[in-house]
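your task:
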Amino acid sequence: MIVAFSVTPLGVGEDVGEYVADAVRVVRESGLPNRTDAMFTSIEGEWDEVMEVVKRAVAAVEARAPRVSLVLKADIRPGVTDGLTSKVETVERHLAD
């Protein structure tokens, strides 16, 4: 399963990078495959382990912000591993043709 999610602190002003970094740090320390871009962090693993990391990432932001917004999108496809890499490689292969 791949989950793309965004955690946004509310009520802390416009500069939220340090709060988002707290969430990303939790993801990176999880040891699960992950990628972060300008809008989302994607993480890959089994349902329970991925959702636990998302929960901890939200809690890290929640510890410092009065309100937190969570946007989450999941690709649930049993038996598929390394989807973070293979999905991008497939698109790149088609672009190269």
